[in-house]
Amino acid sequence: MSIGGIQKLSLVDYPGHVAAALFLSGCNMRCGYCRNPELVLPERLAPSIPVDEVLSFSEIARWSAGRRGDFWW
Predict the structure, then answer these.
(1) Can you give the pLDDT at residue 8?
(2) Which of 11, 2, 19 is CA-nearest to residue 61?
(3) What is the pTM of this model?
(4) 11 is a domain residue
(5) What are phi and psi of 10, to 5 degrees?
(6) Domain presence at residue 73
(7) Of 27, 29, 43, 71, which has the most beta carbons under 10 Å away?
(8) What is the enclosing helix (H) or strand (E) of 68?
(9) Number of structural domains the chain divides into
(10) Best-predicted range by mean pLDDT among 34-38, 45-49, 55-59, 69-73?
(11) Residue 68 clears pLDDT 80, i.e. is over it
């Protein structure tokens, strides 16, 4: 799995909730309306984000959400 990006705070991807978004590289659809062409075109691909970095962030997010009482996943 090639992780192309992580958005640690999103207020629009899960309406009514604070969320995070993980972007995977390598889609071959090449849609004209794609919001993330840098994850599709090989000449624009950035180095993959290490899985450890994502897991570290998710553990911190889980802990902080659990302290507020609104942890759901």
Answers:
(1) 84
(2) 19
(3) 0.60
(4) yes
(5) -135, 130
(6) no
(7) 27
(8) helix 51-68
(9) 1
(10) 34-38
(11) no
Nearest Cα to 24, choosing from 38, 8, 43, 44? 38
The whole domain housing 62 covers 3-68
Can you give the three-state secondary structure of 3-66, one letter per residue? EEEEEEEECCCCCCCCEEEEEECCCCCCCCCCCCHHHCCHHHCCCCCCHHHHHHHHHHHHHHHH
> Which residue did the predictor score with more confidence, 42 or 26?
26
**How far, in Å, are 17, 29, 49, 53, 63 from residue 70 at the CA level?**
10, 36, 28, 23, 11
Structure tokens at 43: 């000449």
AA identity, residue 39: L
Residue 73 in this model has a pLDDT that exceeds 60: no
